[in-house]
From TrEMBL:
This is Peptidase A2 domain-containing protein. It comes from Pisolithus microcarpus 441. It comes from the Eukaryota.
Length: 116
């Protein structure tokens, strides 16, 4: 895993930049509720969501919101979505397999580089 800045675009063109933890082993993409509360007025495109998620450590978490919109990394854009739940301070944004897939990311294990 590594950290890199991503950009989320709201429906009115509002830009929100977030430090994201990239983890291709994460089966969901998510934003922590504390970050969401600070930026939700700029995001738009979100709806309530109460989906249970089992964490790798066996903990059950419940989502509160699902967001759908434009995700951008270094100028490469795609439509994507993520869930919002409390990370317990582990990360601000978890950039998991669903968003890596829509951005057609590839990981070279030989060079340990992700290309989008």
């Amino acid at each position: 895993p590594f950290v890199h800045t991503i950009t989320l675009k709201g429906p009115g063109g509002e830009i929100t930049r977030v430090q994201a933890l990239f983890d291709h082993g994460a089966m969901t993409s998510a934003m922590c509720t504390t970050v969401f509360e600070a930026v939700k007025h700029r995001l738009g495109g979100w709806k309530p969501c109460n989906r249970p998620l089992w964490m790798a450590n066996g903990t059950l978490m419940h989502t509160v919101v699902e967001w759908t919109g434009t995700v951008s990394i270094e100028g490469v854009e795609a439509q994507g979505s993520f869930l919002v739940f409390n990370s317990g301070g582990g990360w601000a944004f978890l950039f998991g397999k669903p968003l890596l897939t829509v951005l057609r990311a590839t990981h070279s294990y030989h060079t340990d580089q992700v290309t989008i």
